[in-house]
Amino acid sequence: MTTTENLPTLTTERMTLTQLCEHDLGDIVAMNAQPAVTRYLNGGKPIAADASEEWIAANVAWGWTGHLRTPDEHGSFVGFFATRPTSPNERELGYRLPAHRWGSGFASEGSKAIVEHAFVSMHCERVWAQTMTVNRGSRRVMEKTGLEFVGMLDLVFDEPIEGSEFGDVEYGITRDQWRLRL
Fold it and tell me: Which of 47, 84, 146, 173 is deepest in the core (most CB within 10 A)?
């Protein structure tokens, strides 16, 4: 697997974020096997190991994995974070964590570091994210990260899942808005 961009290591209060790589496959496969994690992706079906391997290859250029820095669990996998380019000046924020990491602030903490990196180091003008309207947990992470509600999206899916009938939502923040919050 080759990368097109070497991502820097980022640190937060509790995590180290390093570039996604083949070494992360076991953690990604275990996370993607959890129905709670894949509920809003594919209706809760486990994602096969070969599909997770392809997913890593597709996301390695803009993806990080978070690992704990705390002495009691040093190195333990926290989750996946990304800023996928969607235009020359925009990045889409993404994150996925195993269910046992939910509700601990890790998604917001990692996402804030990724957004800061996008604006400071990548010189992006806007970071945005989307999720299903019914995915309240993900929406809350977007809000805690500083993204604001932009609007509803009416997307059509080949294989709709429960809740997709309510549509998706988009959240976003510009570099100027982000600077005002510092």
Answer: 173
Q: Is the pLDDT of residue 64 over 90?
A: yes
Q: Write the CB contacts of 52 (distance below 8 Å, at least 6 apart in sequence).
A: 25, 28, 29, 32
The reported pTM is 0.92
Give, for 5, the enclosing helix (H) or strand (E): none
10-11: strand order across its sheet: 10-11, 15-19, 63-68, 77-87, 90-96, 126-132, 168-174, 148-153
Backbone angles phi, psi at 146, to 5 degrees: 105, -5
Q: At what angle do helices 106-120 and 136-145 cross, to 10 degrees?
A: 50
| CA–CA dist 47, 130 (Å, integer) | 20
Residue 159 Cα to chain centre, angstroms: 22
Domains in the chain and their CATH numbers?
A: 10-180 (3.40.630.30)
